[in-house]
């Protein structure tokens, strides 16, 4: 196997009184050093073993086949990730793996979490698995491992302008929800819009919204010329 210690050839027989000579016929795959085979890279090679001629015997040679297997891939180290729905994407930070190649990622539960540019993106609350792959190289086999992503339910509408947090239980399809602002917020200075009218309808200028169907929507609240983004996840309950 590539990376193993050199292996002695251990030839026997041959002409009396002379030492064996060795010649690698595929020196890009193996070489011979002091009667031992040294693996250069995975592959198949021929090594010629020669017993030189003597005063009484002709030269004798024989070829042997050497097969060098790829080395086992280097282990991948990665930790489980816990996040809350609505959090910024979280870097996976895998380490180890095979030299000279980049990690590849596969979300096994894309309804819970996906991977974008090496970061986990939460799709909804739940637990999912992410597969991390270190591809095979010329010298090492592919390595695969998996880790868990746990996405917690969130307080979906909260900001510096909201007086109390509204929990996910408040967000049920068909329900009217009042978002109450802090006492020092001038209601006349507030304007509200949203980015998906099919999911959420703002039914009054200030704080009342109606939830139309399950999904994710951003409620834009503008107070005194400052914009606040309130992420709302509407679940099926």
Textual characterization of the structure:
- It is built from no helices and 21 strands.
- It has 3 domains: 7-68, no CATH class; 74-152, Immunoglobulins (Immunoglobulin-like), CATH 2.60.40.10; 161-234, Immunoglobulin-like, CATH 2.60.40.
- The two termini are 56 Å apart.
- The strands form 7 sheets. Strands 8-15-14-11 form a 4-stranded mixed beta sheet, with no helix packed on it.
- It has 237 residues and is mainly beta.
Pick out its properties:
four-stranded mixed sheet; single chain; 21 strands; 3 domains; three-stranded antiparallel sheet; 45% strand; mainly beta; Immunoglobulin-like; 237 residues
Instruction: Give the H and E element order.
Output: EEEEEEEEEEEEEEEEEEEEE
Would you identify the regions where 5 or more consecutive residues have pLDDT less than 50? 155-166, 203-208
Can you tell me the CATH superfamily of the largest domain?
Immunoglobulins
- The rounded Rg comes to 34 Å
Strand order of the largest sheet: 8-15-14-11
Categorize the overall geometry.
rod-shaped
> What gap, in angstroms, lies between the N and C termini?
56 Å
The level-1 CATH class of the largest domain: Mainly Beta
Helix content: under 10%
Quantity of strands, as a count: 21
Named CATH topology of the largest domain: Immunoglobulin-like
| CATH 2nd-level architecture of the largest domain | Sandwich
Strand composition percent = 35-45%
Protein name: BIG2 domain-containing protein
Pfam families: Big_2
Domain BIG2: 18-53
